[in-house]
Design goal:
It is a single chain. With 444 residues, the chain is of the alpha/beta class. 46% of the residues lie in helices and 18% in strands. The protein has a 7-stranded mixed sheet with strand order 3-4-5-6-2-1-7. The protein has a 6-stranded mixed sheet with strand order 9-10-8-11-12-13, with helices on both faces. The radius of gyration is 30 Å and the shape is flat. The two termini are 24 Å apart.
């Protein structure tokens, strides 16, 4: 199928040492032959060069020398898009890179649509759909774990698993259909038990993928973290320490924070979407009361709660209310103001809250490293090996896996209820198609 030739700037639009303009399509080599000259100013037919070679020379727009450049030739299908591809490495000034692109467009290319290079890689079979989605995830990754997971998916961790599951399901479908078409030579006697034995491990694997989705969401989107505590416990001071700047207003006046304050924090390779909240206490102040209500609403939606206790003041009903609230939630308890004379013991707080207590001083910025390590261990126990572990981070994948799980469970029910074998085939085919949506081998 003939396709037009596209071009785009492949590097960020900021001044830098090198800028890259990429060309892809059937006319890519014709275009570079028309605009490239060697260091002597002579025209050179780079289209006759071997694939994956680099050539030094100049880019010309007509008789005007535009810039010195290195040109990389990649012949299809051995390129990102599986098409003939050219990359022009020029000086990285914004104006220069744009000028090179304009020259390429004058020579016959058109501007690529957003994501069109990856779209062509998918359409040409260079990437499957899950890998194409992973390209965007790599670009937009906000932390080390999200980046590793996206790179793992780009290399085929998800697609390989899904294709393997589909292959096993397809084998069972083919066996049933063959037996129904040729009952004289292929018997289905006792097949229900045989299918159940094969199906249970597959259902377990789909269940495991679904269970990874929550961790995957946290990994890709960040940990929604809410800081709770009484007024003047040091919540805003902690927020400022984690941010490394004076973002939240800190005063000696209780109730200074009246509303939620949200910030994104990068911490030891993970992302926290941190919400500082109004101090939790009974109050008659209408505005503060709204702030307290919002704080508790945010806490109910949180992946992690950081409860800050003022170690220099006795616990009261407000503390007990918070500790009861966090008992069954993923939380870290901080005994703050360790620089002052302690009134509250860590053992007392740990026993009541049911969580490990870490002593810190937000004022002196001590104990913060222990908080970081505790958060890391709560969400990423040990080192995650992305070569072996398949992590689901895409909402579309979760939906397809849930549908496939439901269809496979229906096959189990049909076997247990002694239904005819063609019922097995129908639901197995549905599971096969749902899994195919993940890698782009099925369409709805």
């Amino acid at each position: 199928m003939k396709t037009d030739t596209i071009a785009a700037i492949a590097t960020g639009m900021s001044n830098s040492g090198i800028g890259i303009v990429r060309i892809s399509g059937e006319e890519a080599f014709f275009i570079i032959d028309s605009i490239f000259r060697n260091k002597k100013g002579e025209r050179v037919r780079l289209s006759l060069s071997r694939s994956h070679t680099v050539h030094y020379g100049y880019i010309y727009d007509g008789d005007d020398k535009v810039d010195e450049a290195l040109v990389i030739i990649m012949k299809g299908p051995h390129s990102y898009t599986a098409e003939d591809t050219v990359e022009i490495d020029c000086h990285g000034g914004v104006l220069m890179v744009r000028r090179i692109l304009e020259t390429v467009l004058h020579a016959g290319a058109r501007t690529a649509d957003p994501g069109e290079f990856t779209k062509r890689a998918f359409l040409n079979g260079r990437l499957d759909l899950s890998q194409a989605e992973a390209v965007a995830d790599v670009i937009h990754a906000t932390n080390e774990y999200a980046l590793k997971s996206s790179v793992s998916q780009l290399s085929g961790s998800v697609s390989n698993k899904i294709k393997e599951l589909r292959s096993r399901i397809l084998y069972q479908i083919a066996f049933i259909e063959s037996a129904l078409d040729d009952p004289e030579h292929i018997s289905l006697d006792g097949y229900g038990k045989q299918l159940m034995d094969s199906l249970e491990p597959m259902i377990g694997e789909v269940r495991k993928l679904l269970l990874s989705a929550d961790d995957g969401r946290v990994m890709s989107e960040g940990i929604k973290t809410v800081i709770l505590g009484k007024p003047n416990a040091g919540k805003s001071s902690l927020m400022n320490v984690l941010l490394g700047e004076e973002r939240a207003i800190v005063t000696e006046i209780a109730g200074t924070t009246r509303d939620t304050l949200e910030e994104h924090i990068y911490l030891q390779g993970i992302s926290l979407n941190v919400v500082d909240t109004a101090g939790i206490r009974d109050t008659e102040d209408v505005v503060e009361k709204i702030g307290v209500s919002r704080a508790m609403e945010e806490a109910k939606k949180a992946d992690l709660i950081i409860y800050v206790v003022d170690g220099s003041r006795k616990l009261d009903e407000n503390d007990y209310q918070i500790m009861d609230f966090i008992k069954e939630r993923k939380s870290v308890v901080l005994l703050n103001k360790s620089d002052l004379e302690p009134v509250v013991s860590a053992d007392e707080v740990e026993k009541r809250s049911g969580h490990k207590v870490i002593g810190i001083s937000a004022k002196e910025e001590t104990g913060i490293d222990l908080l970081e390590e505790e958060i890391k261990s709560l969400f990423y126990e040990g080192e995650i090996d992305f070569n072996d572990q398949v992590m689901i981070t895409n909402v579309r994948h979760v939906k397809a896996l849930k549908d496939a799980f439901e269809s496979m469970s229906m096959v189990e029910n049909s076997i247990e209820n002694g239904m005819p074998e063609d019922f097995y085939s129908i639901d197995l085919m549905d599971a096969y198609e749902k899994l195919g949506l993940i890698v782009g081998e099925s369409v709805e």
